[in-house]
Automatic annotation (TrEMBL):
It comes from the Bacteria. Residues 28-158 form the DinB-like domain. It comes from Chryseolinea lacunae. Gene3D superfamilies: dinb family like domain (1.20.120.450). This is DinB family protein.
Amino acid sequence: MATDSLEVWMRGPLAGIAPLLQPVAHALLQVQEEVHAVTKDFRDKDLWTKPGGVASVGFHLQHMAGVLDRLFTYARGSMLTSEQLGALKREGEASTLTVSDLLSAFDHQVERAIDQLKSTPETVLLEPRGIGRKQIPTNVLGLLFHAAEHTQRHNGQLLVTVKWMREGS
């Protein structure tokens, strides 16, 4: 069996990433593959459609990139910038962005996340971190795990929305 037909986690460890962070990296790379596959030939004009009132494909693509950016920022121990906060407010707003634009932005965030995972030693995983202005307590591992989990959750919603839109058109 060719390894590229296996899910990412079944292909083995990723070079340069600590063992305890392998599941985060595997999850993000799996989502990246699935997002590209499901949006192949997806029409730009349908990006902001909300079938049945659910979130649009465009929202999910923007939000997944944004979640990675924000949660990995907190994992570094930094606060969000005004640019990040502005991007959060604009998530899901209809725009002239294309599927290709949104995929490129998501790919960029996955690449940044993988680079950050490579530079994150296991010894810092339980270091405390705060979320937002209220500094809601968590730790590095919690943030990285939630980034992967939240991205997967929106990927699942994206997959269903795309399928629903394709079968309904």
